[in-house]
Every structure is written in structure tokens, then in C-alpha cells.
Amino acid sequence: MLSSWPRSMQTHEEVRDRLAGSMEVYAVKITLLQTRPPVWRRILIDRDITLSKLHRTLQIVMGWENSHLHQFVFPSGKKLAVRLGSGTKIVNESRTRLGDLICTAGARLLYEYDFGDSWQHELLLEEVLLGDEAFHQMCVAGERACPPEDCGGPQGFAEMLAALQDVNHPEHEDVYAWVGDFTPESFSKEEINRRLRRRKR
User: Fold this and answer.
1) What is the model's pTM?
2) For 54-115, what is the HEC assignment?
3) 83 lies in a domain?
4) Does residue 74 lie within any of the structural domains?
């Protein structure tokens, strides 16, 4: 039973012995590439989650608004889902399971969100654990806030932060008017897990 984990838990290593049963549970670290310092999350998910459900989970865990297209890509470049209308073969995300694509510790998968800003997320399978039928997906650790939608990708995000944090920057007032009191260091796994639980209802 995973719902009783203490709120102070920061990493899956602290609680691996609490998992028991035959369900394979993936400990996955998600890193938003080209962000400095990196925006990242660590989640526990069922290996049999479909890519369509994984997409929705990633949106919640990272903090996106699900307002753009996405795709899953192998590091080698093989596309698992592509832009609608591109003419390239589309793999059915509702039938493709994460465990069919990565199955050993160290395996990686890329998730791209918003083809304009091109937010690349590296999904690293850190460990395969065991759970039971009471298991539910959760975020166990992470750092830093999700960038605002449509801020221009990693480069635009970096420029936005520079302007926001420097009151003498020529674009400071415009950026502040747009994002307000955006706090780059903000992160709450409790809020993320509340959102994940609400989605299941």
C-alpha cells in the first residue's frame, strides 16, 4: 500500500522495501532538457501504462496545460507519435505501453511537448520495483517550477527568467506583467499528487 508513504519522502530509495507484490512499477526520472538549473521530477508508474495515459500524467506532473501537440521519441530518433497531418506513420498511443518500449534500468525515452517551443523531456528508467493491486502512480521528488506555456522554449525561458529577476532589465516590467510572481524554485509534490488523484476520480 503506497498511499501511506510519509509526506517528507524525497526519493524512491527510502521506500523501495514498502513495495510488495507482482506488479512491475517503474521509477522514472523526468528531466526537462536544456533548463539550467534543470527542472525535473521523479515518479512511480505502472509499467503497463499506455502512452496516451502517460502523456496526461506527464502534463500533470510537469505542470503543463495540455494545449499543444506532443510526441514520444526514442533517443535514436524513431518517432512513436507525430504531428497530426504530417503523413508519417502514427503509432497508436492508446495501445502502446511504456513497458513495451523501455524495460531495463538505464533505458531512456524522449517526450516532446509543443513543437513550437520544443520542450524535450528525457524519461530515464532508474529502477524496476514491485507493487501490488493497491499501487497508484505518484510523484516522489522533483525540483523547480514548470516554465510558462508559450515562453519560447528553453532559450526563451532563460531570457524570461533573466528579465524577471533583474528589475533594471528593459523587459522586466513586461515580463512581470505577463507571469507575475513566478517563482522558479517552486515545487510541491503534494499538490502534484492531489492533482493525480483528482484525475482518477
Assistant:
1) 0.83
2) HHHHHHHHHCCCCCCCEEEECCCCCECCCCCCCCCCCCCCCCCEHHHHCCCCCCEEEEEECC
3) yes
4) yes
